[in-house]
Each structure stands twice: as structure tokens, then as C-alpha cells.
Specification:
Radius of gyration: 21 Å
Shape: globular
Oligomer: single chain
Strand content: 5-15%
Distance between the termini: 50 Å
Number of helices: 16
Helix content: 40-55%
Order of helices and strands: EHEHEHEHHEHHEHEHEEEHHHHHHH
């Protein structure tokens, strides 16, 4: 039986900026998600029997804040009216931050929304790719939004897409986050997805650049305790490498409906959220059905899902057979396999070599340097997310060159 953990909802495909690396093909469409479609989705999600624990709802895949606050107040009330009392539900926004003002800050606090802001580092790096529709950089508006969140005490994290330029300057990136009081950081790599071909992936030595960036960033964070509460790539790699043997690893991206995505029109997709909106004759544009006319539970037996699942499962088995990192990755990310290799039935990608393998290599290299001291650390809270003891004790042992 499927187990839904995350629902990604597109309130509108429209985005007020025009990032050079954006893969979304429909970002000039100003359509808006209807209340009826919201009700149809969540009434079926809650009735499906597919929820195990809590549920996170991410409003994304366009710029969610181009819609008024009242849209979300109404949507949240509607969802809450349908939700079983015992189900814990968290709302999250991923935003470019350019529209954040005092009213939005008050709403985020009132509704207890998890906020993620996309910013690619200091102005000269951010403005390389994150441009307005008129071609100007968006840094000034984004950093103003981040400062407003800080002033109003709204917790947030940032996601930074690392380009070849930013990978070359870990100190500049580190100093920027510290100077702006940004203490929760996630790093994405510029991926090839849909119609976008990554500039970074074509750079000679890009995987080593990523390894060196993470290594230096970790070293600087360890030398400045208390400056970062969370560095996703470092913390996640550490947690996965050092997890207890009995802990089961679950790759949401290859499990049907673990991540369920819906666009503004009610079309449903699963596996990698980025698949929704891409085109494919072989897989019916990755659309399993429409929530306004089809039953969610019937989609599990549909022909599109069966074709996708067959091929994604075959790709996972190839990874299991061939890849030494399978226990960390669990079979990769389908959208990257399709975009880079041309097929779900394939194995490693540049994306997985950077985001999974090289981050894992870093942790393993540091553990090797620690030698017997790892046994001492294992008795602490090292397995908890964050892994501060490892970051502090191990990085000090890493040679500079």
C-alpha cells in the first residue's frame, strides 16, 4: 500500500522572476488553483488510508506568494476542515523571497508555515542566474525579504543553487550566510532537467569542486560553532553514513505516491516532483489522472503509473547491483536519470555523483582520518540530525591541501 509523506501543490504556475536554470515550462501562465480542486485533493488524500504519520504540504512550482494571503487563509481553513483530528499537518512555502513584507511575516507566524527562500549567495553570484523578467538581478529584493523575516522573528532556511562560480568560493559563500544571520542552509546543484541543460555539469572537474566546496564549508562551520543550525548536505550525509544498522532507508523519490504532486488544474503525478509539467509521449506526460474526475486510489492501478513504476524499479535494481552507494541513495532520482541518461532504466548521473557520492565520500574520508575516535563519537548524539560532534571533532583533522 502506498504511504503518502509529502504533497506538493502548485497554487499557480506563474512566477514573477525568470531564473536562467528554471525547468518549469509554463511559468508565464497566471492560472490559479480552485477551492474545489483543493477540496477534491485533500478529501481523497485523507480518505485514502495512505497516511501513516503526519503530512507536509509544500506550496511550490511557481511563485506561491504572487497569490494573496487570503487565498492561503481560505485554503488552509478548507484543508483543516477535511483533516482527521489525529493527523498532524505542516504547511511549507518555497519562495524567491522578493514579495515578503510585514503582512506575509505575520501570516507565516500565524499559520506556523515552514519557509524556504531561494538565494544563491551574495549579489554577484545570485544575480548570475536569478533574474527578473526584464533581465535584472533579483538579489536586492530577495535579501530584503530575508532581512524582513529575521526582523520579524520568522524561522526560515535557504536553498542555494551552486554554480561553477559559487563552488569556487566557499569562503565568500560562508561569509555571506554568516553576515546575514542565515543559519539553515541547503545546497542544490544546477541540474539538467526538462529543457534546461546544466552549465555546471559540463565544467571539467565539477565533482571535485563540489567535494572541495563541502569540505571547506564544513571546516569553516566547525571553526565557528553556533553559526549554523543545519547544513543539509553535510548533516544528511553524516546521518545516513552513521545510521544504526537496523534503521531502514527509504527513498521517497522511487516509491509511488510517497511524494504526490498536483498542478493548478488538478493533474496528479508522483515520484520526482519535477516530472509534473514535463512532456513525455512514453509516459503520458507523467500524469496519473486528474483529481477533479478520477479517484486517487484508482490511479495506483493506472497504466501510466504501471509503466513508470516498471522502469523506475528496473533502474533501482541496476543501482542496487552496480553502485557502492546504494545504501545511501536507494536508487537515485528518476527525473535526473531521465534527463541525463534518457531513461529511467539507468544508473548513475552527474547529479547523483555530486549530491550523493561526493558528499558521502567526504564523510567517509573524515571518518577514516578519525580512526578509532569514531567509536567514541558513536556513543554521543552523533546520529541526531546535525551531527555537530562529528563536524567539530573531525574537520579539525582534515588536511588543508
Amino acid at each position: 500500500m502506498p504511504h503518502i509523506q509529502l504533497v506538493v501543490v502548485q497554487p499557480t504556475p506563474f512566477c514573477n522572476i525568470n531564473c536562467r536554470y528554471c525547468y518549469l515550462p509554463d511559468r508565464s501562465n497566471n492560472a490559479v488553483l480552485a477551492d474545489e480542486t483543493i477540496a477534491n485533493l485533500f478529501s481523497q488524500v485523507f480518505a485514502s488510508g495512505w497516511l501513516q504519520h503526519g503530512l507536509t504540504v509544500v506550496w511550490h512550482a511557481g511563485e506561491p506568494m504572487v497569490l494573496p494571503i487570503d487565498f492561503y487563509r481560505r485554503a488552509f481553513r478548507l484543508i483543516d476542515s477535511l483533516k482527521p483530528a489525529e493527523t498532524e499537518l505542516t504547511h511549507a512555502f518555497q519562495t524567491n523571497g522578493t514579495l515578503i513584507d510585514d503582512a506575509w511575516c505575520a501570516f507565516f507566524t500565524e499559520a506556523d508555515v515552514n519557509v524556504g527562500v531561494s538565494i544563491d549567495g551574495p549579489k554577484r553570484l545570485h544575480d548570475i542566474n536569478r533574474r527578473s523578467r526584464s533581465g535584472h538581478g533579483t538579489f536586492d529584493k530577495t535579501i530584503a525579504g530575508i532581512r524582513r523575516l529575521r526582523e520579524r522573528g520568522v524561522p526560515f532556511h535557504v536553498i542555494s543553487v551552486l554554480s561553477a562560480e559559487s563552488l569556487a568560493v566557499p569562503r565568500e559563500m560562508f561569509d555571506f550566510y554568516v553576515s546575514e544571520g542565515i543559519d539553515r542552509v541547503c545546497f542544490n546543484v544546477e541540474e539538467s532537467e526538462g529543457g534546461h541543460v546544466s552549465r555546471s555539469f559540463g565544467e571539467t572537474g565539477i565533482e571535485d569542486s563540489y567535494y572541495n566546496f563541502l569540505r571547506e564549508f564544513w571546516r569553516m562551520a566547525a571553526a565557528a560553532p553556533g553559526k549554523f543550525g543545519f547544513i543539509r548536505e553535510i548533516d544528511d550525509a553524516t546521518r545516513l553514513v552513521l545510521r544504526p544498522k537496523e534503521a531502514v532507508f527509504f527513498n521517497q523519490l522511487v516509491e509511488p505516491f510517497a511524494i504526490t504532486s498536483m498542478d493548478w488544474a488538478g493533474n496528479i503525478a508522483t515520484f520526482s516532483p519535477e516530472l509534473l509539467g514535463l512532456k513525455s509521449a512514453a509516459y503520458g506526460d507523467f500524469i496519473l489522472g486528474n483529481i477533479n474526475r478520477d479517484k486517487l486510489t484508482d490511479m495506483a492501478a493506472g497504466a501510466v503509473l504501471q509503466r513508470m513504476r516498471r522502469d523506475i524499479d528496473a533502474g533501482v535494481e541496476l543501482c542496487r547491483e552496480r553502485c557502492d552507494y546504494f545504501s545511501i541513495c536507494g536508487g537515485g532520482e528518476p527525473v535526473n536519470k531521465l534527463s541525463e541518461n534518457g531513461s529511467f532504466v539507468s544508473t548513475e548521473t552527474t547529479y547523483c555523483r555530486m549530491s550523493k557520492m561526493r558528499a558521502t565520500d567526504l564523510v567517509l574520508d573524515l571518518i577514516e582520518l578519525m580512526g578509532n575516535r569514531v567509536g567514541e563519537l558513536a556513543d554521543t548524539d552523533i546520529r541526531n540530525l546535525g551531527a555537530a560532534p562529528l563536524a567539530t571533532d573531525v574537520v579539525a583533522a582534515v588536511p588543508v591541501n
